Amino acid sequence: MNMTEIQQAFDAAYTKAPRDGLSLNHSQEDGLLRIEVRHQDADGEMRGFDVVVQPTEGEERSATDYGEAAAQVVEQELAYGQLPARGDDGEFKRIVV
């Protein structure tokens, strides 16, 4: 499956107005698409999460399905207001779709 098509589907489905200090970055590696959502809060602490799109063989989902699912996850996580800080291991929360 083409990660660029999934990314384009995500970009089309994710239509929320940008929040001050919020950044979304995409990267592709080894058959997966990572969407890094980061926000610097008022105290200067970086918060956020990663959404990882990892298509599996034989699954009946299209690139559009994956892109829309990733957009929905990002919107749901942002709706909670306070994004998670880095975990004890220094990593951000990771959500796989």
What labels would you give this structure?
30% strand, alpha+beta, 97 residues
Structure description:
The chain has 97 residues and is α+β, with helices and mostly antiparallel strands. Helix content is 29%, strand content 30%. α2 links the parallel β3 (46-53) and β4 (93-96). α1 crosses α2. The chain is globular and about 45 Å long.
**Care to count the β-strands?**
4
Give the count of helical stretches. 2
Distance between the termini: 14 Å
Spatial order of strands in the largest sheet:
1-2-3-4
Secondary-structure element order, N to C: HEEEHE
* Residue-averaged pLDDT: 91
Oligomer: single chain
Uncertain residue segments: none
Structural class: alpha+beta
Let me know the largest β-sheet. 4 strands, mixed
Radius of gyration: 14 Å
Summarize the amount of helix as a percent range.
Answer: 25-40%
- The fraction of residues assigned to DSSP E strands is 25-35%
Shape: globular
